[in-house]
Amino acid sequence: MCGAKAGGPDAATTSGETTIQGSVTRDGQPVTGYVRLLDATGEFTAEVPTSATGQFRFFAAEGTWTVRALVPGTTADRKVFARQGGLVEVEIAV
Fold this sequence. Notes:
- The strands form 2 sheets. Strands 1, 2, 5 and 8 form a 4-stranded mixed beta sheet that branches. The chain has a 4-stranded antiparallel beta sheet with strand order 4-3-6-7, with no helix packed on it.
- The chain has one domain: Immunoglobulin-like (Sandwich), CATH 2.60.40.10.
- By secondary structure, the protein is mainly β.
- It has 1 helix and 8 strands, in the order αββββββββ.
- InterPro entries: DUF1416.
- This is DUF1416 domain-containing protein.
């Protein structure tokens, strides 16, 4: 499972980190699958499985990223901008 937990990040574990996290849902229910992080040029950077509650988390550098959900039957992309030391919440409905 990924490092994300219900209720969002614990400030003690993400302090100073640039964090992109969120959840993947279908019809309001969590979906298990994988989430990829692609850089500004579309190059693969990382991939994590979603947790049983559809959550995921990446620690990344500042910049523009694409978060891609890969779940049975479909994919969905979200573009985000992460600021140094900040938290970006991404909700992906597929």
